Amino acid sequence: MNNYTLIFKIFIIFSYLFHCLLAENNYYLISIRRSSNDKEYDKESISTQIAINEVVNDRMNDIYEIIENHKETYTLKDAYLSDEVVKIIKKLPNVIHCKISKRTVAFRSINTIENNISSNKYYNSEDILKETKWKDLEIQENQFNNETLAYSHLSLISQGQYKYTENSNYTYDNNYYFPSTAGKGIDLYVIDSGLNMNLHEADFDTYKNTPDERIITCDGRIENGEFNPVYKMEDCLIESLDDDEHGTLVSIAAIGKINGVAKKANLHMLATDYGDSDDLTALDYIKQHATPHKTVVNISRGCEYGIECYSQSIQNKITELINYGIIIIVSAGNTYESNCIGQIYTSCEGVIPIGAISDNYIYDLGMEDVYEPAVYTSYGECVTLFAPGTIRVSREGNNEIIEMVSGTSFSSAITAGVVATIMSENSNIDYTYYSMKEKLIDLSLKDVIRDLDENTPNRFLNNGKQIVYKSSKSDEFSN
Question: Residues with Cβ < 8 Å from 106, sequence gap 6 or more?
Answer without folding.
Answer: 192, 193, 243, 246, 274, 300, 301, 407, 409
